Amino acid sequence: MYMLSGVFSYLLQHPGPCASFQVFLKFEMLDAAKNKIRVKISYLMIALTVAGCILMVIEGKKAVKRNESLTSLNLEKKARLREEAAMKAKTE
User: Fold this and answer.
1) Among 27-41, 43-57, 72-86, where is mean pLDDT lowest?
2) What is the pTM of this model?
3) Segments making up each domain of the chain, as ranges
4) Which ranges in the chain belong to alpha helices (H)?
5) End-to-end CA distance of the chain
C-alpha cells in the first residue's frame, strides 16, 4: 500500500517483514497513504465511468443508424408475444 501511494518509492525502502530492523510508522503516515490510494481509486472510477458513457453514446449512434430504438424493439416484442398467444389459443 505504501509503494502504491508513493510513500516508499523504491522497493529497497519498503519496510517488509524480512527487514532486520523494526520500523514504526506514524498514524498520520498510514492515514496519508490510505487517502492517496482512495484518491487514485476514485480517479480510476471516474475515468471508467466517462469511458463507459462515451461507449454508450457510440453504441446508441450505431443503433440509430440501424433504425433501432427502444420503441421499435418493444413493438416487435409485443407483436411476437401476441402471435404466440394467438397460436396458443388456436391449438387449445
Assistant:
1) 27-41
2) 0.56
3) 2-6+25-91
4) 2-5, 27-65, 70-91
5) 68
